[in-house]
Every structure is written in structure tokens, then in C-alpha cells.
Amino acid sequence: GRGRVGADRRRASSAPGRACSAGAQEATDAKASKPPRVRFELSPRGEYAFESDLDDQDAEAAVGRAGLGSRLSYQATERLTLMLRLDLEASWYRFSGIRSGGGDAEDLLEDAYTVGITPMVVYGIDSKWSVIGGLLIEFSGEADADVGDSGTYGGFGTVRYAFNDRFALSAGLAGKSRLEDDARVIPLLGI
């Protein structure tokens, strides 16, 4: 059977910002101290939103999330860094008191999973300017969701100017398809 997709649109819309800020931080780290040619990082995360009332309904919802992010970077040359980010997240939704069409709809969405893959390139034009670009690939849905129905795709690009080792500004654009909705293009600004 086909499961529900699009479990968490909030997370999907913030993925370009996380990816670009990670690329910008990696570029700053590379300039501040000579990192090893290959670098690997793991970042676990978790949160729980306790039961709260849903708007205009006599119902409650709670959400728990656990995730693991990883980043592999390779300093190909003094100016070129290649990166691959992989983010995994599980979300557990609990609803109570929801009625729909005379029947209980408490199992609207129970468990959802997200896999994000972000290959990136950081190229230092000179000591002040760099460009960052990458692809955004994400699959989100219940465990039995069809991969073809749960995928969103996009890309991003930014230009970065470093005033010094501690302060830089970046600007760019990101675009990404969305599940059951039109694609979205957003500006990216970073400090």
C-alpha cells in the first residue's frame, strides 16, 4: 500500500538554509585553520513537543523527533572543497480527540521518516570571495510510502564575501519542489 507523504513541510523548507550555512561555515573553517583533507562529522538531535491544543478543535497533538546528520568533506585543492551531507530523521505524531466525518481519525499520521541528501561544492575565488552551490534531494513520508511519491528536489547557490576571518556576508537563491504543491524559490542571506 501507499503511505502518506509530506510528513514535515517545516523541516523541508529550512533545508536550503541549513545546507548553505553549513557550506559557509566549512569555508570559514578552512580559512581559519588548515583542516585535514578529509573530514567527517556526526550530529545527533532530538526534540519532543508535548501535547498541545489544536486550533478550533477539542483535540491535542504531540510530536517527537530524533535525527542524525552527517557531513563528509574533501578538500580537493586549496580553493575547492566537495561535501556530502546526509540527514536522517524519524518523527512520531500522536493525536487525540480528533473526529472526522463521524469516525475517529486519531491515526491520521503516526510515524514519518525523512532522508535528506545534499551534495555541495565550495569554491574560493580568492581570499575574500567564494561561491557555494549544491543539490537538495529529500524523501519524506511514512515507512510504506512510495519513493517516487515522497521525493522533493532542488538546488541552491550563494556568493560569499569575507571581510575578515570572523565576519562574512553571503547572498543567493534556493529552489525546491514541494509535495503536492508548487515549487518554491527563496532568497538566501547569511552572516
Describe this structure in words.
With 191 residues, the protein is mainly beta. It is built from 2 helices and 10 strands; from the N terminus they run αβββββββαβββ. It has helices at 9-32, 147-150, and strands spanning 38-53, 60-75, 80-96, 99-100, 103-104, 111-124, 129-141, 151-162, 168-178, 181-190. The strands form 2 sheets. An 8-stranded antiparallel sheet has the order 1-2-3-6-7-8-9-10. A two-stranded antiparallel ribbon has the order 4-5. A hairpin with a 6-residue loop joins β1 and β2. The protein is elongated. The N and C termini lie far apart (46 Å). Residues 1-13 have low confidence and may be disordered.
What does the secondary structure layout of this molecule look like, with pairings?
Layout: H1 9-32, E1 38-53, E2 60-75, E3 80-96, E4 99-100, E5 103-104, E6 111-124, E7 129-141, H2 147-150, E8 151-162, E9 168-178, E10 181-190
Antiparallel strand pairs: 1-2, 2-3, 3-6, 4-5, 6-7, 7-8, 8-9, 9-10
